[in-house]
């Protein structure tokens, strides 16, 4: 009857919540041990100069190969790491790793590193960055930090100060996933950013309508007027590429060119080269 089937539904619901919680708790437990167990590694995705089609650098993208959970993607574990604070240590590991890779790349190459708002707002972040630059002998000018607008809106005044200090060290700054948050366009003028990355959702919607194209075009033109260079993220096909070339974007990134890969698969990486 209706009563028992209702109860069953509730039971099923509780069960799936419990399974979800169990997985989350399990993931969090594993995450706490992952650094120590050396389960993280970095993949690199090249970014191309849209005029020359040459690689100008790479975005570092973290991967987690967990003994218990298998491969876990960053969208599944970065939010957990931000929640429980492990992002501080994980972010530090990413930056150090990226700086060491940089030494074995052609000196014209830059590395783009994603930085969480929790890192940016951490008291010791700047000190840590300087320490890592020193110990790895990395030239700050070859690093670009990627931050999201939503992250910076959490505490705009503090973010702004932190960004100015990073700029002063010589580190370039880019605004990631642009267009997905709800910040006003004035953020482009407020923050000391040199690069803007248009989110892949906009790039992928361009084919399906003139209006979406108009949005991307407007973002590019406004950025250029503010002396900000523009990257298109998530370029997946020739049609998108042709539209973007027409719009005079500065840099391109996406599966159409190359998926995130291990660094030693790129010829600009010299560690194993024969001398
Ligand atoms: P993101 O910084 O916006 O990175 C771009 C994401 O788009 C990456 O996903 C990349 O693999 C994917 N992508 C690149 N080209 C294409 C394409 O043509 N089509 C499609 N559909 N996707 C493409 P991934 O590696 O899964 O990373 C997801 C997000 O996780 C990143 O978004 C970033 O927010 C975060 N993340 C990754 N690594 C780190 C890290 O070291 N630290 C922090 N704090 N966050 C990270
Ligand atoms: Mg990024
Ligand atoms: Mg992005
Ligand atoms: Mg993203």
From TrEMBL:
This is PAS domain S-box-containing protein/diguanylate cyclase (GGDEF)-like protein. The lineage of its organism: Bacteria, Bacillati, Bacillota, Bacilli, Bacillales. It comes from the Bacteria. Residues 24-274 form the EAL domain. The chain holds residues 716 to 990 of 990 of the full protein.
């Amino acid at each position: 009857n209706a009563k028992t089937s209702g109860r069953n539904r509730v039971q099923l619901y509780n069960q799936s919540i419990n399974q979800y919680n169990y997985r989350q708790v399990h993931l969090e437990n594993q995450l706490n041990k992952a650094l120590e167990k050396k389960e993280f590694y970095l993949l690199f995705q090249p970014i191309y100069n849209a005029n020359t089609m040459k690689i100008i650098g790479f975005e570092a993208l973290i991967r987690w190969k967990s003994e218990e959970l298998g491969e876990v993607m960053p969208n599944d574990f970065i939010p957990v790491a931000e929640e429980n604070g492990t992002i501080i240590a994980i972010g530090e590991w990413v930056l150090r790793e990226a700086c060491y890779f940089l030494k074995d790349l052609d000196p014209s190459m830059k590395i783009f590193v994603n930085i969480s708002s929790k890192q940016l707002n951490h008291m010791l972040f700047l000190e840590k960055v300087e320490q890592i630059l020193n110990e790895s002998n990395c030239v700050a000018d070859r690093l670009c930090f990627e931050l999201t607008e939503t992250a910076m809106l959490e505490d705009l005044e503090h973010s702004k100060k932190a960004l100015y200090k990073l700029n002063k060290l010589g580190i370039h700054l880019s605004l990631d996933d642009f267009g997905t948050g709800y910040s006003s366009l004035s953020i482009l003028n407020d923050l000391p950013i040199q690069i803007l990355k248009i989110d892949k959702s906009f790039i992928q919607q361009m084919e399906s309508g003139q209006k979406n194209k108009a949005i991307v075009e407007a973002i590019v033109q406004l950025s250029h007027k503010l002396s900000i260079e523009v990257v298109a993220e998530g370029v997946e096909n020739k049609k998108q590429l042709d539209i973007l070339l027409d719009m005079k974007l500065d840099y391109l990134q996406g599966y159409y060119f190359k998926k995130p890969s291990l660094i030693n698969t790129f010829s600009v990486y010299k560690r194993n080269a024969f001398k």
